[in-house]
Amino acid sequence: MQEGSVLQGDTPPVRFDVQGARGGVSIALIATLRRDLTLMLRHRGEVLNPLVFFALVITLFPIGISPDPVLLTRIAPGLLWVAALLAALLSLDSLFRSDFDDGSLEQLLLAPQPLAALSLAKVAVHWLLTGLPLALMAPLLGIMLSLPAGSYAILSLSLALGSASLSLIGAIGAALTVGLARGGVLLSLLVLPLYIPVLIFGAGAVQAAIMGDGAGAHLAILGALLAASLALSPWAIAASLRISING
Amino acid sequence: MWAFIHKLGSPKWFYAISAKLQPWCWAVAALLIVAGTVWGLAFAPADYQQGNSFRIIYIHVPAAFLAQSAFISMASAGLVFMVWKIKVADMAATVMAPFGAAMTFVALFSGAVWGVPTWGTWWMWDARLTSMLILLFLYLGVIALRGAFSSRDSGSRAASVLAMVGVINIPIIKYSVDWWYTLHQPATFSVTSTPSMPMTMWLPLLVMVLGFYSFFIALTLMRTRSEILRREGSKRWVRELFQEAR
């Protein structure tokens, strides 16, 4: 690394190219994406844990309620969505935690590029490694809950769309609580009420697909929610991160 | 006009001005609430469908109004605090949160009590009840977040951000819950489907709503004043004030 050469006395100090450090937002975005992906893929356990949690919670429901396939068919869309939502929520606490602990979050704040864009890259990685795998895994658990055929694609699609909004909204809560020693329970208290619209339209899409009505309207609203949270939440995340770092 | 607003932003001036306003607000609130209660409970005619049980509306509706207004005021105060760093705004937001949560609880509780004679059950997953319950959770989140920070300034700013995020979400939550309700359950009973209220029932309700709003303003003024004293206790003007009083 270049910092090494700064410390050596005999070589002339490296001149940091200020213009280069100001490099485009896209360069910073790609660097953040690559760094976070590498970090997450080196901790495979953290990526797998939400998926195992999802499967476990789904296992609990037939045991706790009834193994009757007719009943399970009726409640399957809601169960799958609630369990996936909780799994995504569980992984949120670690979104900024390790960066906060080792100080790299402060470097993100100091970077000349807008913090909103950089935090958006972090959220995108979170969705890629939590929301998307959950969406891909959901049909498998749907089979176990005897979800009617014909709704599997909609289930995956609605979860993929919806979990992106969940990651974005949840990141606001994660950014607000990252400076607190025990922010985990508080995080769910802050974030769960804001998740309700996504849950309604996500589970509604699957329900509509089962009933044979078009799920298009629900998916369109999920997309609208995603567009709105994509436009608004990066600013809230950035503001919250600044509060957490200074506090 | 602007000079007045700037003065209002200083705790000292706010303390002095609110001292003059406060008794009037309390007087108006007490007058309106007493008048509305007596009018609504004793003189308004009984509902032809619900009998006397409808009279709970004179508590329920004003409380529900205030539950939402208090959240919006709290978020606006938070915005003012975040943008202009006016401390008084944050003090007002601090004292509005528990009041709003209490009003939400009153609206939920009176709704549950009202549900027994009209719906035959304490709780129904009605769209309005559900969104009110979610509002209560939002209030509790803001209060909990403010309390969780050890530094008061960080807690204030975090609570302001959360209140603003919440206020953007409230209409989304409300409409999505409405949609969900129409999808899942046909409306069995609805308070709104009763024919529009006659004037004799509606006027006391208006008086009660205005009375609750004056109560909100008076209580916010009073509690903001004590919050000012609590936070500015080490300032000279507060000390001088208490030396004079002694």
UniProtKB/TrEMBL annotation, chain A:
GO terms for biological process: cytochrome c biosynthetic process; cytochrome complex assembly. One of its GO terms (molecular function) is heme transmembrane transporter activity. The keyword Transmembrane helix applies. It is found in: Cell inner membrane. GO terms for cellular component: plasma membrane. It is a multi-pass membrane protein. InterPro entries: Cyt_c_biogenesis_CcmB, Cyt_c_CcmB_bac. The chain crosses the membrane at residues 47-66, 78-96, 149-178, 185-210, 216-241. Keywords: Cell inner membrane, Cell membrane, Cytochrome c-type biogenesis, Membrane, Transmembrane, Transmembrane helix, Transport. Pfam families: CcmB. It comes from the Bacteria. Belongs to the CcmB/CycW/HelB family. Required for the export of heme to the periplasm for the biogenesis of c-type cytochromes. NCBIfam families: ccmB. This is Heme exporter protein B. It comes from Vreelandella subglaciescola.
TrEMBL record, chain B:
InterPro entries: Cyt_c_assembly, Cyt_c_biogenesis_CcmC, Cyt_c_biogenesis_CcsA/CcmC. Pfam families: Cytochrom_C_asm. The keyword Transport applies. It comes from the Bacteria. It is a multi-pass membrane protein. Its main location: membrane. It is found in: Cell inner membrane; Membrane. Keywords: Cell inner membrane, Cell membrane, Cytochrome c-type biogenesis, Membrane, Transmembrane, Transmembrane helix, Transport. The chain crosses the membrane at residues 21-44, 56-84, 96-117, 129-149, 161-181, 201-221. One of its GO terms (molecular function) is heme binding. One of its GO terms (cellular component) is plasma membrane. The keyword Hydrolase does not apply. GO terms for biological process: cytochrome complex assembly. Residues 13-184 form the Cytochrome c assembly protein domain. Belongs to the CcmC/CycZ/HelC family. NCBIfam families: ccmC (TIGR01191). Required for the export of heme to the periplasm for the biogenesis of c-type cytochromes. This is Heme exporter protein C. It comes from Vreelandella subglaciescola.
